[in-house]
Protein backbone atom coordinates (compact mmCIF):
# COMPACT_ATOMS: atom_id res chain seq x y z
CA UNK A 1 0.00 0.00 0.00
CA UNK A 2 1.19 3.49 -0.83
CA UNK A 3 0.54 5.30 2.48
CA UNK A 4 -1.59 8.41 2.09
CA UNK A 5 -5.00 9.65 3.07
CA UNK A 6 -6.81 10.88 -0.01
CA UNK A 7 -10.10 11.88 1.64
CA UNK A 8 -11.54 12.35 5.09
CA UNK A 9 -15.34 12.12 5.21
CA UNK A 10 -17.21 13.35 8.27
CA UNK A 11 -20.75 12.19 8.98
CA UNK A 12 -22.63 15.35 9.96
CA UNK A 13 -26.06 15.94 11.49
CA UNK A 14 -26.83 19.19 9.61
CA UNK A 15 -25.09 19.36 6.23
CA UNK A 16 -25.99 23.00 5.56
CA UNK A 17 -24.66 24.16 8.93
CA UNK A 18 -21.45 22.16 8.51
CA UNK A 19 -20.94 23.52 4.98
CA UNK A 20 -21.32 27.08 6.33
CA UNK A 21 -18.80 26.35 9.11
CA UNK A 22 -16.13 24.94 6.80
CA UNK A 23 -16.74 27.11 3.73
CA UNK A 24 -17.65 30.52 5.16
CA UNK A 25 -16.27 30.21 8.67
CA UNK A 26 -12.93 28.52 8.01
CA UNK A 27 -12.59 29.51 4.35
CA UNK A 28 -12.06 26.02 2.89
CA UNK A 29 -12.48 25.98 -0.91
CA UNK A 30 -15.63 24.03 -1.82
CA UNK A 31 -15.76 21.85 -4.93
CA UNK A 32 -18.75 21.19 -7.18
CA UNK A 33 -20.72 18.28 -5.71
CA UNK A 34 -24.19 16.77 -5.57
CA UNK A 35 -26.54 18.37 -3.01
CA UNK A 36 -26.34 15.49 -0.52
CA UNK A 37 -22.56 15.81 -0.06
CA UNK A 38 -19.98 18.58 0.08
CA UNK A 39 -16.30 18.33 -0.86
CA UNK A 40 -13.51 20.72 0.02
CA UNK A 41 -10.05 20.81 -1.51
CA UNK A 42 -7.20 20.44 0.97
CA UNK A 43 -3.49 20.40 0.17
CA UNK A 44 -3.10 16.93 -1.36
CA UNK A 45 -6.40 15.50 -0.12
CA UNK A 46 -10.09 16.31 0.27
CA UNK A 47 -12.58 16.77 3.08
CA UNK A 48 -16.05 15.36 2.53
CA UNK A 49 -19.20 16.15 4.50
CA UNK A 50 -22.05 13.65 4.27
CA UNK A 51 -25.16 13.01 6.33
CA UNK A 52 -24.29 10.99 9.45
CA UNK A 53 -27.12 8.47 8.98
CA UNK A 54 -26.33 7.99 5.29
CA UNK A 55 -22.60 7.55 5.91
CA UNK A 56 -23.27 4.98 8.65
CA UNK A 57 -25.68 3.13 6.35
CA UNK A 58 -23.09 3.12 3.56
CA UNK A 59 -20.53 1.57 5.94
CA UNK A 60 -23.08 -0.86 7.38
CA UNK A 61 -22.75 0.39 10.98
CA UNK A 62 -24.96 2.13 13.53
CA UNK A 63 -25.08 5.93 13.36
CA UNK A 64 -25.34 6.12 17.16
CA UNK A 65 -22.25 7.14 19.01
CA UNK A 66 -21.28 9.43 21.84
CA UNK A 67 -18.16 10.66 23.56
CA UNK A 68 -14.66 10.61 22.16
CA UNK A 69 -14.54 9.12 18.66
CA UNK A 70 -10.94 7.96 19.11
CA UNK A 71 -9.31 10.36 16.66
CA UNK A 72 -8.63 14.01 16.01
CA UNK A 73 -7.91 15.99 12.89
CA UNK A 74 -4.87 18.24 12.96
CA UNK A 75 -3.97 21.46 11.20
CA UNK A 76 -0.29 22.35 11.55
CA UNK A 77 0.78 25.96 11.09
CA UNK A 78 4.07 27.84 11.06
CA UNK A 79 3.95 29.73 14.35
CA UNK A 80 2.28 30.16 17.71
CA UNK A 81 0.64 33.33 16.41
CA UNK A 82 -0.82 31.35 13.52
CA UNK A 83 -2.25 28.80 15.99
CA UNK A 84 -3.94 31.63 17.89
CA UNK A 85 -5.31 33.12 14.65
CA UNK A 86 -6.78 29.83 13.39
CA UNK A 87 -8.28 29.07 16.80
CA UNK A 88 -9.89 32.53 16.89
CA UNK A 89 -11.24 32.07 13.34
CA UNK A 90 -12.76 28.68 14.23
CA UNK A 91 -14.38 30.01 17.42
CA UNK A 92 -15.78 33.01 15.53
CA UNK A 93 -17.21 30.58 12.95
CA UNK A 94 -19.09 28.66 15.64
CA UNK A 95 -16.60 26.07 16.87
CA UNK A 96 -16.49 25.15 20.54
CA UNK A 97 -13.25 25.80 22.37
CA UNK A 98 -12.11 22.49 23.89
CA UNK A 99 -8.56 23.31 24.99
CA UNK A 100 -7.07 26.80 24.70
CA UNK A 101 -3.81 27.02 22.74
CA UNK A 102 -0.79 26.62 25.00
CA UNK A 103 2.76 25.34 25.12
CA UNK A 104 2.71 21.55 25.26
CA UNK A 105 4.98 18.84 26.64
CA UNK A 106 6.36 17.80 23.23
CA UNK A 107 7.87 21.23 22.62
CA UNK A 108 5.22 22.82 20.46
CA UNK A 109 2.13 24.94 20.93
CA UNK A 110 -1.41 23.71 20.31
CA UNK A 111 -5.09 23.93 21.15
CA UNK A 112 -8.28 22.06 20.30
CA UNK A 113 -11.70 23.08 19.02
CA UNK A 114 -14.77 21.03 18.14
CA UNK A 115 -16.67 21.60 14.91
CA UNK A 116 -20.51 21.78 14.92
CA UNK A 117 -20.71 17.96 15.10
CA UNK A 118 -18.13 17.64 17.85
CA UNK A 119 -15.23 16.49 15.66
CA UNK A 120 -12.02 17.53 17.38
CA UNK A 121 -9.49 19.62 15.51
CA UNK A 122 -6.04 20.26 16.91
CA UNK A 123 -4.34 23.41 15.69
CA UNK A 124 -0.62 23.08 16.31
CA UNK A 125 2.77 24.59 15.75
CA UNK A 126 5.49 21.97 15.91
CA UNK A 127 8.87 23.53 15.13
CA UNK A 128 10.30 20.08 14.31
CA UNK A 129 7.49 18.99 12.01
CA UNK A 130 6.58 21.99 9.83
CA UNK A 131 6.56 20.95 6.15
CA UNK A 132 4.02 23.30 4.58
CA UNK A 133 4.25 26.70 2.96
CA UNK A 134 4.68 29.71 5.20
CA UNK A 135 1.25 31.15 6.10
CA UNK A 136 1.97 34.41 4.31
CA UNK A 137 2.73 32.40 1.12
CA UNK A 138 -0.56 30.47 1.23
Give a structural overview.
With 138 residues, the protein is of the alpha/beta class. The protein has 2 domains: 7-59, 2,3-Dihydroxybiphenyl 1,2-Dioxygenase, domain 1 (Roll), CATH 3.10.180.10; 73-130, 2,3-Dihydroxybiphenyl 1,2-Dioxygenase, domain 1, CATH 3.10.180. 23% of the residues lie in helices and 30% in strands. The longest helix is centred in the middle third of the chain and has 13 residues, at 80-92. It holds the Pfam family Glyoxalase. This is Glyoxalase.
Please give a handful of descriptors for the protein shown.
2,3-Dihydroxybiphenyl 1,2-Dioxygenase, domain 1; four-stranded mixed sheet; 23% helix; VOC_core; alpha/beta; Glyas_Fos-R_dOase_dom; Glyas_Bleomycin-R_OHBP_Dase; 2 domains; 138 residues; three-stranded mixed sheet
Tally of distinct domains: 2
CATH class of the largest domain: Alpha Beta
CATH topology of the largest domain: 2,3-Dihydroxybiphenyl 1,2-Dioxygenase, domain 1
Major β-sheet, in short? 4 strands, mixed
Using the 3D structure, state the CATH architecture of the largest domain. Answer: Roll
Number of helices: 3
Concise overview:
Residues 4-126 form the VOC domain. The chain has 138 residues and is an alpha/beta fold. It contains three helices and seven strands, in the order E-H-E-E-H-E-H-E-E-E.
Amino acid sequence: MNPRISMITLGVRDLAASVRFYEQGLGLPRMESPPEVAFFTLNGSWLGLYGREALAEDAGVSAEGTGFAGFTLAHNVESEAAVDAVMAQAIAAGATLVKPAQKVFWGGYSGYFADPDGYLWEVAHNPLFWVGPRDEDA
